[in-house]
């Protein structure tokens, strides 16, 4: 009887340790340094003080890995298509604040899909608001993607 209890206890401990180790390694951050990209609007027609009130981002050959910053009061919609096309749109809502160019650049972490049959690329429509309240649409094709060095693409 004691031998059976001993074997059962040892087996239980071994299985528990195996499960704990496998859970630890499966949840461990696998997409760290160099695997994520941010967008760059430096060569766009936008001015640093343009107030952005909406956007439509299209990603081909990649996916939106995370959005570390979402402006307070904004409505954001993500469509992650199975054919390696992702679209993300956002707009401010009533009583929320427009954002500036540098805030939009830090809003997205894009991850390249390794086995995609199309290259990683992105384009964006940005809507700004003038002092008179007029909405202006800016189209940015071939959006520049910058590798995020030393930043994780997964949120804790």
Topology:
Elements: H1 2-27, E1 36-40, E2 51-60, E3 62-66, E4 74-80, E5 85-92, H2 101-105, E6 109-112, E7 121-129, E8 135-140, E9 144-147
Antiparallel strand pairs: 1-6, 1-9, 2-5, 2-7, 3-6, 4-5, 7-8
CATH class of the largest domain: Mainly Beta
C-alpha Rg, in Å?
22 Å
Poorly predicted regions are: 27-34, 152-156
Domains, number: 2
Outline the structure in words.
The chain has a five-stranded antiparallel sheet, with no helix packed on it. It is built from two helices and nine strands, in the order αβββββαββββ. Strand 4 (74-80) and strand 5 form a beta hairpin. Helix content is 20%, strand content 37%. It folds into two domains: 1-30; 36-147, Immunoglobulin-like. It has 156 residues and is α+β, with helices and mostly antiparallel strands. The chain starts with a helix and ends in a 9-residue tail after the last strand.
Descriptive key words:
elongated, four-stranded antiparallel beta sheet, alpha+beta, 156 residues, five-stranded antiparallel beta sheet, 37% strand, Immunoglobulin-like
Q: What's this entry about, in short?
A:
This protein is of the alpha+beta class and 156 residues long.
């Amino acid at each position: 009887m004691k031998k059976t209890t001993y074997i059962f206890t040892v087996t239980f401990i071994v299985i528990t340790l195996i499960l704990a180790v496998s859970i630890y390694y499966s949840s461990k951050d696998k997409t760290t340094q160099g695997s994520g990209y941010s967008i760059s609007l430096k060569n766009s027609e936008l001015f640093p003080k343009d107030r952005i009130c909406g956007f439509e981002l299209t990603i081909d050959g990649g996916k939106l890995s995370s959005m570390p910053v979402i402006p307070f009061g904004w409505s954001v919609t993500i469509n992650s298509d199975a054919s390696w096309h992702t679209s993300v749109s956002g707009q401010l809502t009533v009583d929320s604040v427009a954002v500036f160019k540098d805030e939009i650049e830090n809003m997205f972490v894009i991850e390249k899909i390794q086995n995609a049959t199309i290259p990683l690329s992105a384009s964006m429509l940005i809507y700004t608001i003038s002092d008179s309240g007029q909405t202006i649409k800016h189209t940015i094709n071939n959006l520049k993607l910058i590798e995020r060095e030393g930043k994780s693409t997964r949120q804790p």
